[in-house]
Amino acid sequence: MDIAHIVMIGGRAVLALLFVLAGITKIVGPKPVLDHMRQEHVPVFLFPGVIALEIAAGGALLMGWHTMIAAAVLAVFCVATAIVFHRNFAQRAERTQFVKDLALAGALAFVAASAIA
Fold this sequence. Notes:
- The chain has helices spanning 3-28, 31-39, 47-63, 67-85, 92-116.
- Helix 1 runs antiparallel to helix 3 (47-63), helix 3 runs antiparallel to helix 4 (67-85) and helix 4 packs antiparallel against helix 5.
- By secondary structure, it is mostly helical.
- The longest helix has 26 residues, at 3-28.
- It is globular, with a radius of gyration of 15 Å.
């Protein structure tokens, strides 16, 4: 195994852990996320699905299982999160979160495309 392959696996793992840990954090302390969902008029019944998506797709990405699908699903999730939760561009923190989510979507799109090759 060459160094490039090791770096790719490490990068994919760090990216995946972001989502796995986010899902676990939502289980441990759901109130802030549920409050934010209510504030943005997002139905809270979606909350368990968000947790499942983050942990399942993040776990699949972490293990390299169906990498293209997991990365693509998480990329779409990041774009949706940016649009739904971080569109208040008058606030600097929200602009930063918006761009961060789009950057994550780009990285995940790259991972998905790389899994095809």
